[in-house]
Amino acid sequence: MVVVGVVIGSNSDLETIQGTINVLTELGISHELSVISAHRTPEKAREYGLGAEDRGIEVIIAAAGGSAALPGVMSSWSNLPVIGIPLASSELKGVDALYSIAQMPPGIPVACVSIGSWGTRNAAYLAASILSLKYPDIRAAYAAYRAKLASG
Asked: How far apart are CA 77 and CA 59, in angstroms?
């Protein structure tokens, strides 16, 4: 069963999101990757958000640049935890996306990680941390990763 839904706004984000996919795979976390634009395919975004929980998704990771609407849109259509990754896809190098994701209105929360490759990996680690509350195998894999970090 897929437990993490990774959503990007464009095929041009595929290379950037690879850090997320790599970490999820390394930790043995089942995931799916979808290309859904909050602006170009809003109905698809709505359907994804509304149906994610019924499909077994437990955490949504949404990456976006520029106005970075995608993470907030996912959170507006789902009660699941949403982790937003600001992408450096505009002249502002991702700061605009960071502000957009971090400044969600009350009641529609989005956890926000850093811009760029650190953020793509940290989104997966944050998802692992959330899922480790329920899944012992994910808890063990994440703990092993953290122990490896601590050992230098």
From this structure: 13
What CATH architecture does domain 4-150 belong to? 3-Layer(aba) Sandwich (3.40)
Token digits of residue 57: 């998704």
How is the chain split into domains, by residue range?
A: 4-150
For tokens 């993470």, name the residue.
71
Write out the chain's pLDDT in tens, 152 residues: 799 999 999 999 999 999 999 999 999 999 999 999 999 999 999 999 999 999 999 999 999 988 899 999 999 999 999 999 999 987 889 999 999 999 999 999 999 999 989 999 999 999 999 999 999 999 999 999 999 999 98
pTM of whole model > 0.90? yes
